[in-house]
Amino acid sequence: MPTLALLFFPFAMALAASSDLLTMRISNRLVLVLVAGFFIIALAVNLPLQQVAMHVTAAVIALAVGFAFFAFRWIGGGDAKLAAATTLWLGFGLTLPYLVYAALLGGVLTLALLTLRGFPLTPFLARWPWLERLHNKKSGIPYGVALAAAGLLTYSNSTIYQLLSA
């Protein structure tokens, strides 16, 4: 059981990244499962209530900032919700490293996509709608990929991970 719990977060991050890459959407259901999973696993590892409250506070702040970014059309709504759910798992102590990783990875992803969009898409690759959508200059950037990767880079330092792997 501890191994399944340990892999829950990485599996959810992989689903979020692949969903955003393939469809440019991150489902509300996935975000809710990620949030519920945190509370179930936090209870299972006896995470102190005060720490749970701090994780929730960090997530609420991340959600508020994320929705401000969404209002300015800097990120999508799914990205804002995914960032908040990821912050719930990481807590205040890892929020800054998570956001730095997300910004750096998001910048690399954006530059790579903008560069690739400057080249024509071959007919072979154009057969896949998701690749065609990624190549479209009017399409956005699947920032959930960067958010998920940043979450994975930070997860092994989280309290939940430490308690599960002990």
UniProtKB/TrEMBL annotation:
InterPro entries on file: Preflagellin_Peptidase, Prepilin_IV_endopep_pep
Topology in the lipid bilayer is annotated as: Multi-pass membrane protein
Q: Which residues form the signal peptide?
A: none
Q: Where is the Prepilin type IV endopeptidase peptidase domain?
A: 7-111
Record has Transmembrane as a keyword: yes
Q: Which Gene3D superfamilies match?
A: 1.20.120.1220
Question: Which parts pass through the membrane?
Answer: 26-45, 52-76, 96-119, 140-164
Please, which domain of life does this record's source organism belong to?
A: Bacteria
Task: List locations, semicolon-separated.
Answer: Cell membrane
Does the keyword Transmembrane feature in the UniProt annotation? yes
Keywords attached to this entry: Cell membrane, Membrane, Transmembrane, Transmembrane helix
The record's annotation in PANTHER family points to:
PREFLAGELLIN PEPTIDASE (PTHR36506:SF1)
In Swiss-Prot or TrEMBL terms, this protein is called: Prepilin peptidase
